[in-house]
Specification:
Helices cover 30% and strands 24% of the residues. It is of the alpha/beta class and 262 residues long. Helix 8 packs parallel to helix 9. The longest helix has 14 residues. It is globular and about 50 Å long. The protein starts with a strand and ends with a strand. The chain binds zinc ion (2 copies). One zinc ion (ZN) binds next to helix 2.
């Protein structure tokens, strides 16, 4: 069986990525209401009761909003590193002790091996995730203000990549945000621009990378077509063929993406 991936939502109004294999189902982040996440899972023909674990990238509400509710309602363990647990405990409510899982680097859930790596964001200990299944690798990187060697080396050779393409730098500069927010978005601990996404992807896409998804697009400082075109042109400049070639696609802030299989 192939691995199924669906971005149920991606962006500042909620992040939740759904991953399913023959004997494991996980979510990475649960940043919409529990009800909305259950609905979105049912909409793609799956059963929310099958979720084996929720992995948290960092404690911002767009990544954890429904985590506590889902854990209580469906008895699901939540995995996060120690610093993230400390930072989010007051927001997610009471979790059964056996469902509080402190993640030290990596763990196995059924036939999935999940590994975290550090990213650069204004949270306690933010991470991206690599998910390994059979001979396939998925990499998820959103909410990072800079791209360093750790990130590049972590996500090399992935078959499916979800990479943040948050904003167009010029749109942030001339846009409506107050100065302190502009500084945050553009800073080292903020978010990745369309250019950064394109440049990162041109370094890590391998022969055989099947699917590249752009995520966490800003409503105020980006347009879906601008993110897509910017990344596409950087990839083409680097001799990477797109559609046909690598499948480059978008995820959405207000709806689920297609269901992809690798
Ligand atoms: Zn976020
Ligand atoms: Zn964040």
């Amino acid at each position: 069986m192939k691995l199924k991936f669906c971005s149920l939502s991606s962006g500042s109004s909620g992040n939740c990525q759904y991953i399913k294999t023959e004997n494991a189902t996980i979510l990475v982040d649960a940043g919409m209401s529990g009800k909305k996440i259950q609905e979105e899972i049912s909409n793609i023909g799956e059963d929310p009761k099958n979720i084996d674990a929720i992995f948290i990238t960092h404690e911002h509400s767009d990544h954890i909003l429904g985590a506590g509710v889902l854990s209580r309602r469906l008895n699901i363990p939540i995995y996060a590193n120690e610093e993230t647990w400390e930072a989010m405990t007051q927001y997610i409510g009471k979790i059964k002790p056996e469902n509080i899982k402190v993640l030290y680097d990596s763990t196995q859930i059924g036939d999935l091996f999940i590994q975290s790596f550090d990213i650069s964001h204004d949270a306690a200990h933010p991470v991206g995730y690599n998910i390994f299944y059979a001979n396939k690798k998925l990499s998820l990187v959103t909410d990072t203000g800079c791209v360093n060697e750790t990130i590049i080396n972590s996500i090399l050779d992935s078959d499916l990549l979800l990479i943040e393409s948050n904003h167009d730098e010029d749109m942030v500069i001339i846009g409506p945000y107050p100065w302190h927010l502009k500084k945050r978005v553009l800073g080292e601990f903020g978010h990745m621009s369309n250019d950064m996404a394109g440049n990162l992807l041109s370094k890590v896409i391998k022969k055989g990378t099947e699917i590249v998804l752009l995520g966490h697009l800003s409503k105020e400082n980006n347009f879906p077509q601008l993110a897509y075109k910017t990344v596409e042109s950087i990839l083409k400049e680097n001799s990477i063929e797109v559609n046909p070639g690598v499948c480059l696609d978008l995820t959405y802030r207000d709806r689920a993406s297609k269901v992809y299989e690798v």
